[in-house]
Every structure is written in C-alpha cells, then in structure tokens.
Amino acid sequence: xxxxxxxxxxxxxxxxxxxxxxxxxxxxxxxxxxxxxxxxxxxxxxxxxxxxxxxxxxxxxxxxxxxxxxxxxxxxxxxxxxxxxxxxxxxxxxxxxxxxxxxxxxxxxxxxxxxxxxxxxxxxxxxxxxxxxxxxxxxxxxxxxxxxxxxxxxxxxxxxxxxxxxxxxxxxxxxxxxxxxxxxxxxxxxxxxxxxxxxxxxxxxxxxxxxxxxxxxxxxxxxxxxxxxxxxxxxxxxxxxxx
Length: 243
Known about the structure:
Radius of gyration: 20 Å
Number of strands: 7
Strand order of the largest sheet: 4-5-7-6
Order of helices and strands: HHEHHEEHHHEEHHEEH
Shape: globular
CATH class of the largest domain: Alpha Beta
C-alpha cells in the first residue's frame, strides 16, 4: 500500500465516487489516516469531496483487510452535542504495508555494520543519515519563540520530504511549546532493532532548534505518531504581570 503524495481526488464532489478509481480514492483515505492519526467519516468526506456512504465502503474494506480500525472519540475530540462520531485509524498491520519493501535488507546491512564497526559505527551512521535529511534546514536564529517555531516548521517540511509526513502544532497550557508529529516513519521496523536511529533524530532536532527537545511518543513503541515536544518560553503568569 504505497502512498503517493499526488493521489488526490480532483473531480467535483458530486462525481468523485464514479470518476476516480477506487485505488486512488482508497490511497487518499489511507493518507488522511496517516496524517491525522484518527479521523471521522465526515472529516474524510469533507477533505476528499466524498459522500459518507462511499467513505464507509472504503473504510469497511480497510477494516476487513486488517489495515484500519474504529474507536470511540475521546472527550476532547467531540465537537458539539450529541453522540460522539467514531474515529478511524490505521492498525499496526496497515502501517506495515506503507513503505517497508527494503526493511529486511536495511536491517541486515545494519547488523553487518554493527558486527564490523561496533555500536559507534551504528550511531555514526544514524547521525549522518538524519544530518543529510536536515542538511538544508536553517537553524533557529535565536532562542526567541518565533524563531524556534519557524525553525520547527522548516524541520517538519524537511522530514515530510523524506517520507515522515510531519506536522507542527502550537500547544499551550503547562506544556507550552511546539509539537512536531511524524505520522509515518519509513524506518520504523528497522528502528525497533536499532533505536540509535530515533535517538539521532532527537539529538539533531535539538541542535537545529537550539533547545532541548523531548520525545513524547514513538511509532516504534506502538503509538500512532512520533511526537517531539519543543519547549517555548513560558508566558508570564497573571500574577507576575500585575507586579
């Protein structure tokens, strides 16, 4: 199930179900599942211009194949009153079909590298790999929030270009900062055996952003995205601003 970034339903909404081949439509739905983590039937329909019945038909096929599953929406995901809409997401099996054609070869090569050069060779390879991906990303100009957030956006775009389907989101409250979510990992199966790949990513992100970053979730550990938290300067408290 290889996802192409060019698979979009271009026909008007009323004609999409008959004008666009099922394979193209299904790949577009799978891409939304990857990017969103979880999504409702109506959200898919709005994004792709599809009728709810058509969306459900594709989701039912993905569920039957073991590639997707449905779950009740969390309280914070409910919009408005009424019964919460069910949300759909990829299963581990569905993710495994995305882009892992060379996993066995890559893992075998990494084992040989470790046997020949030891753990240092694996760490060096992992770091050089992510450095190549982020080579054209301009680091944060300063520790100012705007500069760090802008650099996070540039970093996310570079990761997306490398196949990670990354998004950046500003978060407030006690965890004030930016979260970089990698909704797909093209090397997740290899990273299960070689966590050096994940650690090198975290270190490189921190250096580009000029601050300590923290991994909150990883696909390798069974989460639906690799989420990296980038702290921003805490806004002044109301008490402090009055004094």
